[in-house]
Amino acid sequence: MKLTFYGHASVLIEIEGTKILFDPFISGNALAKDVEIAKIEADYIFISHGHGDHVGDLIEIAKKTGAKCVASAEIAGWLQSNGIESVHGMNHGGFIEFPFGKVKGVNAIHSSSFPDGSYAGNPLGFVFVTPSGSFYYAGDTALTMDMKLIPLWAKLDFAVLPIGGNYTMDVTDAIYAADFVECNKIVGIHYNTFPAVTIDTDKAVEQFTASGKTLLLPQINETIEL
User: Quick check: 219 and 184 in contact, CB under 8 A?
Assistant: First the structure.
């Protein structure tokens, strides 16, 4: 699998030619000024929750690409009201089958509202199980014991975890989360975009290394193999 980082919590994961975009927030992120939104391709867009720093470019990219948007039922309805036809509403529950594999919506300890403050349903994380491998995209979440359930459903090849603190897990809690989900290869997101989530990235990598884990922090627009 390939992962491209577009800044903040926005990543694109390619699975055997299928391009899956997560939480597109690019134009509002000064650090992502060199990302050309018009060139982003996506077959699916998964949205963890409704906050502006996760849906900022969602409607534009969904309209441009025609990607199927997968999110809570409330976000799916909001997308439809904004002219997006290809949606799949979901919630916490069993695995859902897609052409590329299956996905389970899992608990995320956070909040979720649209940019206008209206209710956006439950925040979600996603566990993907595919013929090419399995991974966990946590979205915005605090550390939760529910993460210990994930190894019952999937043997993860990597996990995408927030590490910036303040609104989500910090580095220390993300290391605990890696233990909970039984995965030692972590891609860090949700850090350094705003002053409240600024971290020392060198120290973060050292902390993960000291715990026997690998923290990957790709540059914006960088693609890595996983």
Answer: no
Residue at token pair 């979901």: 90
Provide CB contacts within 8 A for 4, sequence distance 6+.
Answer: 11, 12, 13, 14, 218, 221, 222, 223, 224
Q: Which of 136, 135, 140 is nearest to 124 (CA)?
A: 140
Amino acid at 78: W
DSSP 212: T
Q: Check: pTM over 0.85? Answer yes or no.
A: yes
Domains identified in the chain and CATH numbers:
2-225 (3.60.15.10)
Q: What's the rounded Cα separation, in Å, for the pair 150 and 138? A: 11
Determine the residue type at 83: G
pLDDT digits (tens, 9 = 90+) for 87-107: 999 999 999 999 999 999 999
